[in-house]
Specification:
- It is a single chain.
- The protein is α+β, with helices and mostly antiparallel strands.
- It has one domain: Haem-degrading domain (Beta-Lactamase, 2-Layer Sandwich).
- The chain has 4 helices and 4 strands, in the order αββααββα.
- Strands 2-1-4-3 form a 4-stranded antiparallel β-sheet.
- Helix 1 crosses helix 4.
- It is globular and about 40 Å long.
- The N and C termini lie close together (about 10 Å).
Length: about 140
Amino acid sequence: MKLTLDGALRMIEAAKQKAREIGTPMVIAVVDEGGNLVALERMDGALLVSVNIAWNKAYTAVALKMPTEDLSGLAQPGRPLFGIENADGGRIVIFGGGIPVLHQGHVIGGVGVSGGSVEQDVMCAQAGIKAFLPL
């Protein structure tokens, strides 16, 4: 299964709905299995810096095949992945808001959300993933 534009837009819509519920404008990015951008939307009022952060969160989730939230603990001083945020041209994000999109155990894409607190970003990214799961 491939991550299509329709699937990406469905995830973005669900993440936007959650962002509206919590009253925080977000940027939502969806990438394919190669980390290439499929769709990105910046809600009115979302921070400009969140555009690259959301995209890089989605990229990181695909590149490392794990939620960026899980990477955070592994990237602290003294931990096995300390300094990884400097890898890959600085694209690796080590805080929550990026989640890989899985189909039958295989990473087929990623969603990244930025604009609120880490907890809010994760909540919106999870809403996007849930919108994709029925496929």
